[in-house]
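Hey, resending since the last one bounced:
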Amino acid sequence: MEICNHMQVSFDAKSVNEGLARMVVTAFMTEMNPTLEQIADVKTAVSEAVTNAIIHGYEDEDKLVELSCERNGQQLVVTVEDHGVGIANLQEAMQPFYTTKPQLERSGMGFSFMEAFMDKIEVRSNMGKGTKVVMWKYIEREKNQ
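The structure tokens again:
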């Protein structure tokens, strides 16, 4: 039997809420019985996506970040969306080490980390309208279940 579930939260675009986002996603995926490694992977990807929304999407303006999770069987889909400035050149932004904020000592590895820790990511962005990052992770069941 395929179990489907969905949740959605919005929170202020403040760095302090990055931890909240990680914990909400972790709590949501608990019923999927993930390994500690899978939890760490998803938490890292969520941290990067939320941080990008706050720092680059809104440039520290007081606005909302939207986070949603969907479970389709053992497939987890996490979406992080902002309604900020958007990304001018998405292809360039997806390159390792590219950053628009070198003065903040950003490494430019956000999208690379998301791609490394999730099975698939998709980024959509429109100038002046914001960016949506959708990430997929298959949570494989343990053999002894």
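The longest strand covers residues 4-12.

Sorry for the duplicate.
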